[in-house]
Amino acid sequence: MEPETELTDLGRRIADGETAQRARTILIGTLAAQGWTQARIADAAGVSQQAVSAAVNRASSQMFIRAGVRADVAAGVNPRDSLARYTEALSSSDNPKMATYLADFEAIISEETAS
């Protein structure tokens, strides 16, 4: 499936909730890493460049979290212990992005440790 078609399809599925949103974030991050401009991605996805920028930033954060979770697992460390430390350290933060970061961390732990 062509990326433009995939983005359009995902756009329709956004109403289906967080799964489609996460998939779009990952796809936008992938396309940006492949050299697509934010304008091209925005046009293909039917969203603003600001939305693309936010998705690229979130995808970058998720890749960082995923690498950390995989490193924990490889080292025999329970990634939920790392999540607990981050949750405690960030609990006093007024930044609303921290709640999103911690939710992404929890979801990625579930994905990476499901097998």
What characteristics describe this protein?
115 residues, mainly alpha, 6 helices, globular
What is the count of distinct domains? 1
Helical element count?
Answer: 6
Main β sheet profile: none
Strand content: under 5%
Please give a quick description of this structure.
The chain has 115 residues and is mainly alpha-helical. It is 78% helix and 0% strand.
Q: What report would you give on this structure?
A:
The protein is mainly α. It has one domain. The chain is 78% helix and 0% strand. It is built from six helices and no strands. The longest helix is centred in the middle third of the chain and has 26 residues. It starts with a helix and ends with a helix. The mean pLDDT is 87.
What topology does this entry show?
Layout: H1 3-13, H2 18-33, H3 38-45, H4 49-74, H5 79-90, H6 96-112
